[in-house]
Protein 1
Amino acid sequence: MTTLTSTTQTAVDEFRQGHGDVETWDAVDFEVHQNLVDLVLASGPAGGPLRTARRRVNALVVIAYTVALYAAAEVLTAWRGARWTPLETHLDTVIEGPLSRSETALRRSGDLMFRLRTEQVGRRVTDLADRLASSLRRR
């Protein structure tokens, strides 16, 4: 009953304390825990305005850098007619490292709407880069 009257994050903490170690949970406990965590993530960004702004700015910078690298790789590949492996290797490193970490931070904080909006903008820009690259004449 306390889960209905407390904040969602407090409900998750109380559930974890009341049910002990994860290894002892049954299927129902896992489902209830997952439902509580989904409520926490859906309730909006975690932390104060400064932490939210810092997370969002970090994500925007990393996404903008990644999209710029992707666009450059696509256009250079179309222009030169061959893949440019140093740029693509760096792009893979950025995707697996900073981009993955910033997306995880947004996901864990519950900033779903911001994450979806940045994903849509990123897809639009990469689609534009793909169209530009396909219009360039291959050598």
Protein 2
Amino acid sequence: MRSVWSVVFLGVSLVASGSANAQSWGVYVGTGGGYPGYQRGYDEEDGLARFICSGQRAHMLEDRLRHEVAEDEIDGDDADRIHAAIDRLEDRQRHECREGDRRAIGDIAYRYDRIARWIDGEAHRGW
């Protein structure tokens, strides 16, 4: 019985520290990062949706793209195409997060992963 309570206590501690850390980094605030309509509870199933709907995934990709351009790993034309793809997906993200469509949000996460691989491919083309 003691080990069960230890596991429960550890889980609660991790969730509490993770929530505080996520808020301190601006990962999400209250209603999914400010997208109205996305106001679900914060269970584990919503973790991906919170991450996507907070806008952090798109911002991470844009930061990465800027870094690769600054390092001359990606040329300007390719960077413009990648940036346009991120912007289009961000528009769709805002819509789907307002609707609260988990399946569509999962598809958006997959598409963000494809853009990340696209950035990798362009940045390391010569390797």
Protein 3
Amino acid sequence: MTYPIKTSSGPVAVGIAVALIGLLLLLSPYRGLAVACLTVAAACVSSYHGIELDVGRQRYRSFTRVLGVHFGSWLHLCPCVRVVLKAHSDMMVHPNGSRSLPAERNEHLTLLLATPGTSIGQVMAEFTLYHREKALSVGKQLAAALQVPFVVMSDV
């Protein structure tokens, strides 16, 4: 059984704008272009990114869904003892070797699967700090699908 988990939405605002253009073009002689615009709009509005687990076959994939079709390659799913949500703050290093100012830090949340016997986990998704609630929701869904505990690090 597979478990698709939505991690982020597609460009809905773009889809709505293209749909409006398509509707206006329906009133013109360019009906073929109108149909193309409406098709692109449907693809934008219906698309999203996610993670799909196939626990029986021990595999997973990060995918993009467009018009109901999932695009993404399957990868091996390592044994997992828990799902972890950690905060990260990467320091940017510029080509001249100088380090970034604190305002240039790339702060994000990383959702990973902790594997037994190693301190390195399998990264499943990354979220901006503004999407903390989505990261928590996705982490809970992954833990439930894999039947392991969900751990949120204290700095999240």
